[in-house]
Specification:
The complex is a heterodimer of chains A (304) and B (263).
Chain A lengths: L1 H5 L4 E10 L2 E11 L4 E5 L6 H8 L7 E6 L2 E2 L4 H5 L2 E4 L11 H11 L8 H8 L12 H13 L5 E5 L7 H16 L3 E6 L2 H7 L2 E6 L2 E7 H7 L1 E8 L14 E7 L2 E7 L3 H7 L4 E7 L3 H14 L1
Parallel strand pairs in A: 3-8, 3-9, 6-7, 7-8
Antiparallel strand pairs in A: 1-2, 1-4, 4-5, 9-10, 11-13, 11-14, 12-13
Helix pairs in contact in A: 4-6, 5-6
Chain B lengths: L2 H13 L1 H34 L3 H6 L8 H10 L2 H17 L1 H6 L1 H5 L6 H34 L5 H9 L1 H16 L5 H24 L12 H4 L2 H4 L3 H24 L5
The chains are: A alpha/beta (304), B mainly alpha (263).
Chain lengths: 304, 263
């Protein structure tokens, strides 16, 4: 299965657009997500992340453009597609009276499964109570049930809309570990999030969406590489370091006693070589948070 | 029936198991009370009814109240039970569509390989079963009332009377699915279909009261509802209304398939 899945993108959209009259939905979204890839879909609330996901799932119909999943048309072949994916909707809900076990049981029957798959194991892993009515669970515990419903049948594609909402830090770690395992299994994972830290830790590539438009798709490593790092150097003698100012990619140089603080973008080989001429007591490179990267993209677009 | 539809119907019925008693019990107890008091009020009622204007009696389906079946029809089966069952039907079918959309369950179900048409079919079938169960509970309690009071209600006639409510109410379940094709707000779906239910009753009533307006009755399902407790079930009307209900459900499923399901 993994070989055939690698032949084509698991998710492929071309010019996917959804307009709501005069209101904005999404416009011209073109992405491709490969098998075994974790793709982050980043943007603030209202940017169009959920609209994109709902269009992929055929919950809403696109105004124009194409979306394929597993090489199948997302509208015409929606039922066949959904047989192979797992979805955690944003702001997961299932009603108040049903228990997680009842919900898993129904989905298992709808999927033609004769057992609850790995639901029990996942419940144990996430410390989720499958037997209490969902209305009696906290938001975080309901979210765990949502994650189990999305993953218990070992899908080939996971679509997760804001998956860690309400989860405590321990469970967020467990979630990230699960995503990594799913990737190892060959599963493609599409994560919509505005939690930039979790995306940074788990995604191979990210798409940044703003005002309904995809403004960038980057490999996570490239994205972070392009970003400015804050570099703090402590020197035994900081005099004569002004040459750093002239190096490509260096900006905002400040000298504060024996400390030199500056921003460096891109390749920092020249910076290291310039520093090597001095006695370096300490060096700290602070990687930007994805939020800073994200804001940078927004700023660039605004400037443009 | 596909295994998916069977699973959805079973879940729907399990979720709404309490409604069978919540609706069947009060309707049944009320009917039982009506039947139970009939022997003691029979004479006085007949005298009172004789003095009613004939048009009014015809409009409300009140003929002679010389037997308990006529009394049960006049008091329960001509108005209260069909209106209550019609409203229950739209509530039940809406719970599986607009209600599920509001709770978030619809998103989860539509993440599974189940078509929207099957969801609608399951909602319609489950509502049909739920309605039947409510009517059976109502009929059983009515029969019990008759048995305890010695009113002498004919079992077959009573069964026909309650059974004839089923297709009528189911028609409003079909309309509920049509309404879900336009709105996924439960208040809008139940409100609009309940409005149609009452409007149809009033249209039928007006058509009966004013012979010049009798033509408007063709737009009301109540025209075809009849008086099965006295006349027996009219197979054509029973089958025809059921067929229209199923047709409405199919149209609703078509509309539902084409609509966006927003978050």
């Amino acid at each position: 299965m993994a070989e055939s899945m690698r032949a084509m993108p698991v998710i492929e959209t071309d010019g996917l657009t959804k307009l709501y009259g005069n209101a904005r939905g999404i416009e011209d979204v073109t992405i491709a997500v490969e098998a075994g890839e974790v793709f982050g879909f980043l943007g603030p609330n209202g940017a169009g992340k959920t609209t994109t996901i709902r269009t992929l799932l055929n919950l809403i119909h696109p105004s124009s453009g194409m979306a394929q999943i597993f090489g199948l048309d997302s509208q015409r072949d929606s039922v066949a597609i959904r047989a192979r994916l797992g979805n955690l909707p944003g702001d997961f809900g299932y009603g108040r009276e049903a228990s997680g076990r009842e919900a898993v049981g129904l989905l298992a029957r709808l999927r033609g499964m004769e057992s609850l798959g790995r639901a029990e194991a996942l419940a144990e892993r996430f410390r989720a109570d499958l037997d209490r009515p969902l209305g009696q669970l906290s938001r975080g515990n309901r979210q765990k049930i949502g994650l189990i419903l999305a993953t218990f049948h070992e899908p080939e594609l996971l679509i997760l809309d804001e998956p860690t909402g309400g989860l405590d830090p321990l469970m967020q770690e467990e979630f990230l570990a699960l995503v990594a395992e799913e990737r190892e299994r060959g599963c493609a994972v599409f994560i919509s999030s505005h939690d930039l830290d979790e995306v940074q830790r788990v995604c191979d590539r990210v798409g940044i969406v703003r005002n309904g438009k995809l403004i960038a798709v980057e490999r996570m490593a490239d994205l972070l590489g392009k970003a400015r790092r804050k570099i703090i150097v402590r020197l035994s003698d900081s005099s004569g370091l002004t040459e750093l100012q002239d190096l490509k990619g260096v900006s905002d140089l400040q000298v504060d006693g024996d400390r030199v603080i500056f921003q460096a973008a891109g390749d920092i080989d020249a910076v290291i070589k310039a520093l090597a001429a001095h006695h370096v007591v300490d060096l700290e490179a602070v990687h930007p948070s994805l939020e800073e990267v994200f804001l940078g993209y927004y700023r660039e677009e605004g400037d443009g | 029936m596909s295994s998916q539809v069977a699973a959805l119907v079973a879940t729907h019925l399990s979720d709404r198991r309490r409604s069978v008693l919540a609706w069947g019990l009060p309707l049944g107890l009320m009917s039982a009370f009506i039947v139970a008091i009939f022997p003691s009020v029979q004479g006085a009622l007949s005298n009172a009814i004789e003095k009613y204007p004939s048009g009014l009696k015809e409009a409300f389906g009140i003929g002679e109240l010389s037997n308990v079946e006529q009394y049960l029809h006049a008091e329960m089966l001509s108005l209260i039970v069909p209106l209550a069952a019609g409203y229950l039907a739209v509530r039940a079918v809406a719970s599986g569509l607009s209600g599920a959309a509001e709770s978030g369950r619809l998103d989860v179900l539509l993440s599974a390989p189940v078509s929207r048409s099957r969801l609608c079919a399951a909602g319609f079938l489950a509502t049909a079963v739920e309605l039947a169960a409510v009517l059976v509970v109502t009929a059983l309690l009515t029969g019990l009332g008759s048995l305890l009071s010695g009113a002498g209600l004919a079992v077959g006639s009573a069964a026909a009377g309650f059974a004839s409510v089923w297709p009528l109410a189911l028609l409003f379940a079909g309309l509920g699915i049509v309404a879900s094709g336009f709105s996924l707000r439960t208040s809008v779906v139940t409100g609009s279909v309940a409005g149609v239910l009452v409007a149809m009753y009033v249209v039928n009533l007006v058509g009966k009261l004013d012979p010049g307006l009798s033509g408007v009755r063709y737009f009301s399902v109540f025209k075809y509802y009849g008086n099965a407790i006295e006349d027996g079930i009219e197979p054509l009307a029973f089958g025809g209304i059921t067929l229209v209900a199923a047709l409405l459900a199919a149209i609703g499923a078509w509309l539902f398939k084409r609509r966006d399901i927003s978050a």
